[in-house]
Amino acid sequence: MSLDGFVAGVDDNQNQPLGEGGEAIQGWLFSGDQPSRYNDFFKMSESNREVFDEFIPNTGAMVFGRRTFDIVNGWGGSHPISGIPIFVVTHEQPEHFQENDTPFTFVTDGVESALKQAIEVADGKNVVIGTPSIAQQCMKAGLLDVIQLHVSPLVLGNGVRLFDYIGDAPIKLENQQVTDGTDVVHLQYKVLY
């Protein structure tokens, strides 16, 4: 996310998934010469690669919102982190979508149901929440255990904010890890409800 809390710029759509100016938020994923061990599409500095590659083998499932799924056109049926089951929270299942090596499950009965299904499939590994609206709903419901942020040195000014709509009560966090990467700071917090 940007320093001012945005994960995408304004007007995010299929032609510019990260919105206007939003590509710089994820620039650290493509600004180095060290390919990820899990997908050489990502080329990072060595320190960024260590952080990025550390979470992948510990991830058993991911949960995304339908808006993100549509904006990225379902990753063409293959999420960049191959083979990890993805649960998409939606009001209705899409009629058509590409299927390749990513198993998609469309959940129409809410975030808690999607999270429960993802936890079952993850078999003891982490469940990653990949979109702001789902993260916000999980925080409101007290379902988020850890927040891992990758903060880019950028003030975007407008767009899709990560921490909108989480309620009026403050949510305390416990610092677990800070890693100074190249063109990014990696932060990890335990959520204290």
What does this structure look like?
- The chain is an alpha/beta fold and 193 residues long.
- Helix content is 19%, strand content 26%.
- It is built from four helices and eleven strands, in the order βββαβαββαβαββββ.
- The protein has helices spanning 46-55, 66-71, 111-122, 132-140, and strands at residues 6-8, 34-35, 43-44, 59-65, 86-89, 104-107, 126-129, 146-151, 160-161, 172-180, 185-192.
- The strands form four sheets. A four-stranded parallel beta sheet has the order 6-5-4-7.
- The longest helix is centred in the middle third of the chain and has 12 residues, at 111-122.
- It is globular, with a radius of gyration of 16 Å.
- The two termini are 23 Å apart.
- The model has no long low-confidence stretch (mean pLDDT 96).
What attributes does this structure have?
193 residues, alpha/beta, 4 helices, 19% helix, globular
Question: Briefly, what is this?
Answer:
This protein is α/β, with parallel strands linked by helices and 193 residues long. It contains four helices and eleven strands; from the N terminus they run βββαβαββαβαββββ.
Largest sheet composition: 4 strands, parallel
Mean pLDDT: 96
Order of helices and strands: EEEHEHEEHEHEEEE
Poorly predicted residue ranges: none
Distance between the termini: 23 Å
Helix content: 10-25%
Query: How much beta, percentage-wise?
Result: 25-35%
Tally of extended strands? 11
Q: Based on Cα principal axes, name the global outline.
A: globular
Q: What is the radius of gyration? A: 16 Å
Q: What is the structural class?
A: alpha/beta
Oligomer: single chain
Strand order of the largest sheet: 6-5-4-7
Number of alpha- plus pi-helical segments? 4
